[in-house]
Amino acid sequence: MGDVERDVDRELRKRLREPRIRDDDLFETVEEVFDRATVLALLELKQRGCLSKLSGVVSAGKEARVYLAKGKSGEYVAVKIYLTATAEFKKGIWKYIKGDPRYEWVLSLPTHKLMTIWARKEFSNLKRMYEASVSVPKPICVYRNILVMEFIGENGVRAPLLKEAAEAGLLDSDFAAQIFTEIVRNVYRMYWYAGLVHGDLSEYNVMLHGDRVYIIDVSQAVKLEHPNSHMFLYRDISNIVKFFRDELKLRTPPIDKIYYSILNKDEAQLQSPIEEHEE
Ligand code: ATP
Ligand code: MN
Question: In terms of CB atoms within 10 Å, which end of the chain has fewer, N or C?
Answer without folding.
Answer: C
